[in-house]
Specification:
By secondary structure, the chain is of the alpha+beta class. The protein is 30% helix and 31% strand.
Length: 321
Amino acid sequence: MDNVAKPYGDRERRWIDRRTFLETLRLTASLGAVLGAYPRVTAAQASGGPPFIATTVNHLAISTPDYVRSRNFYIDLLGMRDAWDDGVKCQLDFGSTSEPNSLYIVGQARPGGTAAVGHYAFGLPGFWAQRAALKAELESGRYEGVRADGEAGFMVNGPSGYQVQPVPVKDPAMFPGAASPCEVAASDTCRAAYDAGLRRLASMPQPGGRGFKATHFRHIVLHVPDIGKERDFYAGLFGLRVVTDSPGESALRFGPNTLVLRPAGADGKPYINEMAYAVEDYDSTGAKAELDRRGLAPRPGSSAGAWAFDDPDGFHLEIAG
């Protein structure tokens, strides 16, 4: 047994120990560089997370003074699918049918209002399995604005105060206005409310065939007063991956989608007014021609071949491949 237990002499053992020591120094230096770059993100991950990994935009909620105009614009131009619609609010899916990204278009009760993006929701593939752990984390006292939004979602404020909602990727208990009827996701009340938004779908408009087919968000721009704090919140809680980072902008990837953080205005209030869509079989020349035909006055976008324009509510949109 002694011969098996001591296969190396002292010289070989010292060499191995030195090699191990040098490798440890190299790894420590690499880790130090990461910790220095994103101290809050790494601390959150080191504490056991982020266990709640976002992959989709379950919805980006737009309130608008002209619900029909906005809904029809996105269906016809970007080929979105009307997946739920009660006549005053709707869910427009695009991309994958099993793991879609979506817009909620909600009509404002009073005419003459200003369109706004009130919040957005991340789709978490493991939502139901992790719901109890997610609830415990959100109620740990480290976050503001936490509340249940039906059984299939929570609301939580980022450091800027902007609301984000972790929810399932796709679920019949998550649709526009689901919070009240779906306090219990499996209830008859929830199912009836969901079914009410399906009955009208056969009469809803369909894409005209001359537009585009959106697949995901190339980027959503959220303006915040402190980019670093917001970056660390999204990376630490929802596992968004930092892909670019500078004092004036940070970009975080989740699934194929990207969230871009930029400075807020002088008042410091957070807001979203820019969304870019990736479209299938993109051709820059043909895209410009179609946007011109629709009178959308395209202008060069943020990347080569991309085109930017405004929607009927004044939101800045962009399309690219």
